[in-house]
User: What shape does this take?
Amino acid sequence: MQNRYLYSLRIVLASIDFLCINLIFAVAYYAAFPESGGNSVNYYLELTVINSILWVVNVLVLHRYHNKAVYRSAILFSLRWQCGFIHLVVFAVYLVLTGQLAVCLALYLLFFLFLGIHFICSQLTYRIAEPLLKTKYRFKKPIALLGISKNSEHLASFLQSTHRRYDLANFLEQHECRMVSEAKMSLPATCEQIKAAANKGITDVYVAINPDTTNDEIEVLMIEAHNQCIRLKLIPQPGDAYTQSYSSDHITQLHGISAFSEPLEDMNNRFVKRMFDLIVSAGVILFVFTWLYPILAVLIKLQSPGPVLFTQLRSGKNNRQFLCYKFRSMTVNMDADDKQATKGDGRITSIGRFMRKTSIDEFPQFFNVLLGNMSVVGPRPHMLKHTEQYRNTINKYMVRHYLKPGITGWAQINGFRGETKEAGLMIKRVEHDIWYLEKWSIALDLKIIFLTVVNIFKGESNAY
Assistant: This one.
């Protein structure tokens, strides 16, 4: 199971190790070659580049920062010592082949000594910090393993015996996973368990199914899961030869049959999108918002009394609430959390009408992007009242909450923005949001941003 904390830990550890390797090499070099030695800066840079390249190649070949290695400290440090030993051997071979070993013997020995000290100290530090990290962050992705037959018990036993990332027995205390072990659960009972999992903050539910499970039963489970903003993944009949039907990697990663294809479930894709969001939002805040805010603040204040920024709770990823920021485009009123803006709405000020037409009122949401509760591109966040209203009337409405909400989105550039006068318009918006969820790519995000800018200058009939 992919986990953002483990993914982040891999990046952090890799960065720290790379910096430390170079810092240790610098200390060893200047200890071996004092300034009086006459060795130039160019020679130091040459050896540093070689040292860095050899280290990077070494850790890539040995998969030093693989998910499994990071999760288990014993594997992590075993690989680290292997990497250190192989690195020193390869570096020595390089020095011999280039005829520099005699000149750099003192440097090599000091580098060997300092690297060993660093490994020992960092290993002790990580062992002290590891329990604190695992207490604060979810090293184990919370899942629920349910079932409408005893197959769920077989799957749970298999996972417990082969993969330490899933602690099925400690769900109530550790918030890891829940396994329902009744021999034959009724469909309503399984639906209730899906609700219970959602209430516990779980977003992924796996259901072991039998060959006699009907499509209608599966559809009922899917609808309930979508309504609870749960990703439901079906595990087919394992039989007595479960391990023969699937590869070990397939089972330990707990792949199932899903209703949707989600490119952003892959941590590498999520990392790319997050980096893109950070770069864009930081750029807009630094180069646009810094001069735009004081101008609009004066104009908004001159138009009507009240705050410059309008804040409102909206529905975010996995239906978690967050505080969304906008420039205030209306007079202060009691209906802001209940009533959508309509054409000719008397609450909208003249500067507000301009801001809404050009989407300038959305600019403060780049702070939401920077904070991580929004993305530059994604489904637009709705008011809490509308989320509760539509989740019970529109099929798959909550699926759009699998993603972070966006400042702009695929639905918006296709004309489905602003007021939704009838359910059909919201259905179309949801369809476009789900299409984006399944087709995401960084190229698609760039296309949506480009078309958003085009629409701002061209004007949109629904922007009011």
Notes: The first strand starts at residue 143 and ends at 147.
